[in-house]
C-alpha cells in the first residue's frame, strides 16, 4: 500500500505502485524515492510514517517525519520551519550515537518539511508493557544503564530531548534500547536555558518546570524517572502523585512487584519536583548506579540480578544476562578469577521442562515466531507443525509433498517459509490463525540437487535467502517469489546461512571448507573465511561482530567478521578425554539474543552451552535419544528449543 503525504487527504490509502494519490492528486513519492506505507505516530508538530526507499534494489524500510503547521499564520509557519532546521542539524549530529536513529535525508516538498531517518525494527516500551505486563526491578536497572549514557551524550551536545516516555524508547530486535523522536528537543545555548519557552512534551511524563516552558537538563531525568515508575506499576504518573499530600505514592501500586530500597531511592530522587533536590545530570546518576552495582558485585549479591539485554517476557521467571555498563565490566574483569571448583557453582542451570512428541519421524528444522508464542517444526514426515508454546499443543499441521529440510518465520510472524528435499520453497500465510489450513502464498522451484538446505527471511521481511546443494545462494522477493539474484562462489554444497541483525550481510557455510561473507544489498561477496573442515552451520552474534561456525570432526570456532581472524576453537574436556573429535558433526550453532552464550549440538545426542566471553563450556543438556538437528532460542533468550532425530522437540529453560 502507498499512503498519501497530504495530511488533509480524506482517503490516503493507495495502490502499492501508484505515483499520484487517487483522491487528491498529491505526489506519493517523496524526492522521487521515498514511499510512505502507513502512519505510525502523531505529535504536536508533525506525524511519523513508515516508508521504503525505492531508489535501492531491496527497498529498505525507513521513517518519514512530516512537520505540520497546526494553525495558519506567519508565526506558526516560522516556528515549524525553525523546528525543522533544528531537528535536521540535531539528528545529523546525534545520529552518530548507536542508540539514536541516523538521519538519512531532509527536504521540503509541497510546503511541508520532511526528515527521513533510519528505521529501528523493534517494539517501544509502551507496547512491551501492554503485551507482557509490568516491568521487574532488573529491567529498570537495565533501562537506566542503557538510557543514561544516551542522555549524557545528548546533554553534552547542549540538547534536551523534552519527550522521554515509553513510546519513544524502542527495544530493537538485537536487544538494544534506542531513543527516538527528537521533534520536541531543544538546543540550549548560553543563557537560553534560563528563558521561558513553549511547553512541549507528554504531560503525564514531563517535569513541572518543563510544563511551564522552562525545561532544563534534569527535566529529561525527571521524565526518565516517571517512565520507570509507570513501567513498574502500569499506572499513569498522574495517578501516582497525591495532589492533596503533594507526594508520590507509586510504591502503593507495586502489586507483587517489590523493588529494592536502593532502586526506590534513585527513582524518588529522579522524580523530585524541586529541581534542587533532583539529580542534576546523567553523569551524576550514572556514578550512583555504578557504585551500587560495584558494591553488590563485591558482596557477590548480583549473581542472579545482573542487567539483562532483553526485557522479560510475561510468565518467564529467569534471565540470562549481559552487562552493558563498562565500569561494571571492568570491575568484574579485574577481580580475582575463581578457582574451577568455585566457578562451577556459577554455571547457568538449564532444565528440560517439556517434550513435544507428536511428530512421526525425525525433525530437521525448527523456528520460533518473533513474539515467542508459536514454534514451527518440519522434518522427514512431509509435514510442518505449528505449536502453541504456552501449552505445548500442536495447533496446526501443514501437509507437504516432500520431506522438509528447513523452516523460517517472517519477521512479522504472518508467514512461514519452508524448503524441502525436492528443492521447493513454499511460503505459507498463517495470519488467519484459527483456520484449519494455511494458504500457500507462493511455491517456487528453489534449487537443483539434493534439496533446499537452508533459508531465512531478511530482517525487514522483504527478501528470502536460500541455499542448496547446487552450490548457490539465491535471493527471492518475499512478496512475489521472483528471483532477485544468484550468489555464486562456493565450490560445493552450501549447508547453512545466517543474516546479520542489521540486514546488511549474509554468512554462508559450505562443504568446500569456507565461510562466505556477502553484501545482501549488493549481492556480492565481500570476504571468505577458510576453515579446516566442512562447515555445517554458521551464526552471527547479535552485534554482527562475530561469526560462529560448526563443522565436521569437532569443529566449533569463533571468527572476527572484519579481520576474518579466528578468535578461538571451543574445547570440551570430555571430548579430549573420550578422544571423539572425528565422530562429532556439529550441525547447529546458535547465539542467545543477548550474545552471551552459544548453544551447539554435540556427541551422545547432547547439547552444549558455551560462555562466549570465557570460551568455556558451562552446561551440557542431556535427554534426546537421537541426533540434535536444530536449535533456536526464544526471543527473551531464556528458553532453548531443540529438534532431534528422535522425533521430539525438547524445551529447555534457565532455572
User: What is the helix fraction of residues, given as a range?
Assistant: 10-25%
Examine the secondary-structure arrangement and name the CATH architecture of the largest domain: 7 Propeller
Stretches with pLDDT under 50, minimum 5 residues: 189-199, 297-348, 433-437, 575-582
In CATH, the topology of the largest domain is named Methylamine Dehydrogenase, Chain H
> Order of strands across the widest beta sheet?
3-4-5-6-8-7
* CATH homologous superfamily placement of the largest domain: YVTN repeat-like/Quinoprotein amine dehydrogenase
How many structural units, i.e. domains?
3
User: In this structure, how is the largest beta sheet organized?
Assistant: 6 strands, antiparallel
Give average pLDDT, whole number: 82
Structural class: alpha+beta
Q: How large is the share of residues in beta strands?
A: 25-35%
Number of helices: 10
Number of E strands: 43
Mind telling me the C-alpha Rg? Answer: 26 Å
CA-to-CA gap between the ends?
45 Å
What characteristic shape results from the CA principal axes?
globular
Amino acid at each position: 500500500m502507498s499512503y498519501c503525504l497530504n495530511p488533509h487527504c480524506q482517503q490516503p490509502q493507495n495502490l502499492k505502485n501508484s505515483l499520484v494519490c487517487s483522491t487528491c492528486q498529491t505526489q506519493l513519492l517523496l524526492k522521487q524515492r521515498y514511499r510512505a506505507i502507513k502512519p505510525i505516530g502523531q505529535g504536536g508538530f508533525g506525524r511519523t510514517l513508515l516508508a521504503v526507499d525505492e531508489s535501492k534494489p531491496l527497498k529498505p524500510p525507513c521513517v518519514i517525519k512530516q512537520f505540520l503547521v497546526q494553525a495558519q499564520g506567519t508565526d506558526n509557519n516560522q516556528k515549524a520551519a525553525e523546528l525543522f532546521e533544528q531537528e535536521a542539524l540535531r539528528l545529523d549530529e546525534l545520529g552518530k550515537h548507536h542508540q539514536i536513529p541516523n538521519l538519512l535525508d531532509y527536504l521540503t516538498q509541497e510546503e511541508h518539511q520532511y526528515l527521513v531517518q533510519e528505521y529501528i525494527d523493534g517494539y517501544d516500551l509502551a507496547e512491551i508493557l501492554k503485551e507482557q505486563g509490568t516491568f521487574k526491578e532488573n529491567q529498570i536497572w537495565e533501562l537506566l544503564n542503557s538510557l543514561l549514557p544516551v542522555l549524557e551524550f545528548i546533554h553534552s551536545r547542549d540538547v534536551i530531548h523534552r519527550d522521554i516516555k515509553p513510546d519513544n524508547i524502542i527495544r530493537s530486535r538485537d536487544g538494544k534500547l534506542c531513543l527516538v523522536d527528537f521533534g520536541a528537543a531543544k538546543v540550549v545555548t548560553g543563557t537560553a536555558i534560563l528563558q521561558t519557552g513553549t511547553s512541549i512534551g507528554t504531560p503525564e511524563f514531563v517535569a513541572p518546570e518543563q510544563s511551564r516552558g522552562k525545561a532544563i537538563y534534569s527535566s529529561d531525568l525527571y521524565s526518565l524517572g516517571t517512565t520507570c515508575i509507570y513501567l513498574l506499576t502500569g499506572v499513569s504518573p498522574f495517578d501516582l502523585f497525591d495532589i492533596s499530600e503533594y507526594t508520590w505514592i507509586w510504591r502503593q501500586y507495586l502489586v507483587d512487584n517489590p523493588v529494592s530500597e536502593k532502586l526506590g531511592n534513585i527513582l524518588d530522587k529522579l522524580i523530585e519536583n524541586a529541581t534542587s533536590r533532583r539529580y542534576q545530570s546523567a553523569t551524576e546518576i550514572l556514578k550512583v548506579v555504578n557504585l551500587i552495582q560495584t558494591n553488590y558485585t563485591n558482596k557477590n549479591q548480583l549473581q542472579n540480578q545482573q542487567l539483562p539485554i532483553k526485557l522479560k517476557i510475561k510468565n518467564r521467571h529467569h534471565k540470562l544476562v549481559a552487562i552493558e555498563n563498562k565500569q561494571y565490566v571492568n570491575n568484574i574483569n579485574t577481580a580475582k578469577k575463581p578457582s574451577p571448583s568455585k566457578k562451577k557453582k556459577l554455571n547457568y542451570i538449564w532444565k528440560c521442562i517439556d517434550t513435544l512428541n507428536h511428530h512421526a519421524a525425525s525433525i530437521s528444522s525448527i523456528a520460533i515466531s518473533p513474539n515467542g508464542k508459536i514454534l514451527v517444526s518440519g522434518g522427514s514426515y512431509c509435514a510442518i507443525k505449528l505449536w502453541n508454546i504456552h501449552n505445548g499443543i500442536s495447533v496446526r499441521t501443514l501437509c507437504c509433498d516432500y520431506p522438509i529440510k528447513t523452516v523460517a518465520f517472517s519477521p512479522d510472524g504472518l508467514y512461514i517459509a519452508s524448503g524441502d528435499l525436492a528443492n521447493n520453497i513454499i511460503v505459507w500465510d498463517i495470519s488467519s490463525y484459527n483456520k484449519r489450513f494455511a494458504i500457500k502464498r507462493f511455491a517456487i522451484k528453489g534449487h537443483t540437487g539434493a534439496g533446499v538446505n537452508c533459508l531465512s527471511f531478511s530482517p525487514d521481511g522483504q527478501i528470502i535467502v536460500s541455499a542448496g546443494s547446487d552450490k548457490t545462494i539465491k535471493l527471492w522477493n518475499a512478496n512475489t517469489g521472483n528471483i532477485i539474484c544468484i550468489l555464486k562462489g562456493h565450490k560445493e554444497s552450501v549447508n547453512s546461512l545466517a543474516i546479520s541483525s542489521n540486514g546488511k550481510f549474509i554468512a554462508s557455510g559450505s562443504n568446500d571448507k569456507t565461510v562466505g561473507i556477502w553484501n545482501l544489498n549488493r549481492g556480492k561477496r565481500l570476504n571468505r573465511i577458510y576453515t579446516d573442515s566442512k562447515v555445517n552451520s554458521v551464526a552471527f552474534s547479535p552485534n554482527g561482530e562475530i561469526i560462529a561456525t560448526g563443522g565436521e570432526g569437532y569443529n566449533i570456532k569463533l571468527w572476527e567478521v572484519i579481520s576474518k581472524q579466528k578468535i578461538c576453537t571451543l574445547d570440551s574436556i570430555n571430548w579430549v578425554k573420550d578422544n571423539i573429535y572425528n565422530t562429532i558433526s556439529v550441525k547447529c550453532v546458535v547465539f542467545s539474543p543477548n550474545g552471551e552464550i552459544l548453544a551447539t549440538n554435540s556427541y551422545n545426542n547432547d547439547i552444549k552451552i558455551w560462555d562466549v566471553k570465557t570460551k568455556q563450556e558451562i552446561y551440557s543438556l542431556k535427554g534426546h535419544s537421537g541426533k540434535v538437528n536444530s536449535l533456536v532460542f526464544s526471543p527473551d533468550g531464556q528458553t532453548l528449543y531443540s529438534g532431534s532425530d528422535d522425533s521430539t522437540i525438547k524445551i529447555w529453560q534457565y532455572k
